[in-house]
Amino acid sequence: MISYKKLGFVNTKQMFKKAMSGGYAIPAYNFNNMEQLQAIVMACLETQSPVILQVSKGAREYTDQTMLQYMAQGAVEMMKREAKIKKLKPIPIVLHLDHGTDFAICKSCIDNGFSSVMIDGSHLTYDENIKLTKKVVQYAHKHGVTVEGELGVLAGVEDDIKAENHSYTKPEEVKDFVKKTGVDSLAISIGTSHGAYKFKPGQKPEIRLDILKKIEKMIPGFPIVLHGSSSIPQDYVTMINKYGGQMPNAIGISEKQLRQAARLAVCKINIDSDGRIVMTGMVRKILFEKPSEFDPRKYLGPAREALKEMYKRKNKEVLGSSGRV
Questions:
Q1: Are strands 156-158 and 161-163 parallel, antiparallel or unpaired?
Q2: 40: closest CA among 253, 316, 310, 321?
Q3: What is the DSSP pairing of strand 146-151 with strand 116-119?
Q4: Spatial separation of the C-alpha atoms in residues 153 and 150, rounded to whole Å
Q5: Is 23 left (phi over 0), alpha (psi -120 to 50) or beta?
Q6: How far, in Å, CA of 315 to CA of 313, rounded?
Q7: Phi, psi for 243 (deg, rounded to 5)
Q8: What residues contact residue 269 under an 8 Å CB cut-off, 6+ apart?
Q9: Catalytic pick among 98, 120, 184, 272
Q10: Which candidate, 108, 115, 106, 103, places its Cα nearest to that of 145?
Q11: Is-contact 12 223, C-beta < 8 A?
Q12: How far apart are CA 55 and CA 98, in angstroms?
């Protein structure tokens, strides 16, 4: 058993409490490799934003759980060192499992230093979702780990998560679900989607803020989470397509609506696809313009810098988390 505290992480309790009272959302950025991890941590340090490092089941398998543990621990130490050099306050960091599919993977992450886990039982019946979520909560809380549950289904595709249609969260169910499971936060479905193709051409992207407000009334002061909240930056989609990629009709969530949601009960916003798109765009551009380049540092380095700037802008202009340490 490896305690997340020994690795330098915190759980989400105080982080969410401050976010809710301050009217902003904590960035929850997914990473799959070293460059993404460095960009996330440095962007949040430089903007003085708390951060949740998110790892999906697929990313954990890709990276290897032991390698992942030391990468995340190394990121914390890097942050502390850079904070001293830049004379900045150290930032709180959560290591979070994104979309845990069963009790076994949640337990494994808890036992290996994760400070927060999500158990996604949204594909189950309501009663089965409660049963599974409660089991994870009981184990996690013994070790001081916070748990995120989910009600409702998001459409889209990202890693192992696939669904053709939305199933909006029912406001009348949230109070009962929270009470029976003991979860610390709740992911809801109000119109966001996984992946880069969130909406059909001509379809207006829209978050159902009316549903969010009803949920907020049912569980006042309770932390709400939005998944699938990438905005799919069109300048980088254009870059990808210009330099040999094929991403027609890639559309994302309105950043204006995300900011509105963050001012309400949403205190955690998940962003994955934006990071993938920025990195892919930069790598394609550099290799197209310099076809003889074979040093990964020469194309992953600039991609890392572009990622960092994108994350910094998100913290300042969309999530409102900048300067909240």
A1: antiparallel
A2: 310
A3: parallel
A4: 8
A5: left
A6: 5
A7: -105, 40
A8: 25, 26, 27, 28, 225, 226, 229, 258, 261, 262, 318, 319
A9: 98
A10: 115
A11: yes
A12: 6
Q: CA dist 215 to 119, 141, 263, 271, Å?
A: 20, 25, 14, 22
The answer to whether 244 touches 287, Cβ cutoff 8 Å, is no
Residue-wise pLDDT tens digits, 209-221 = 999 999 999 999 9
User: Residue 98 catalytic?
Assistant: yes
Across 309-324, average pLDDT: 98
Give Cα 152 to chain centroid, integer Å. 17
Angle between helices 273-289 and 234-242 (to 10 degrees): 40
Q: What are the structure tokens assigned to 281, written together?
A: 């765009």
What 3-state DSSP class applies to 38?
helix
Q: Spell out the domains of the chain, with CATH numbers in brackets.
A: 4-319 (3.20.20.70)
State the pLDDT at residue 229.
87
Q: Which amino acid is at 258?
A: L
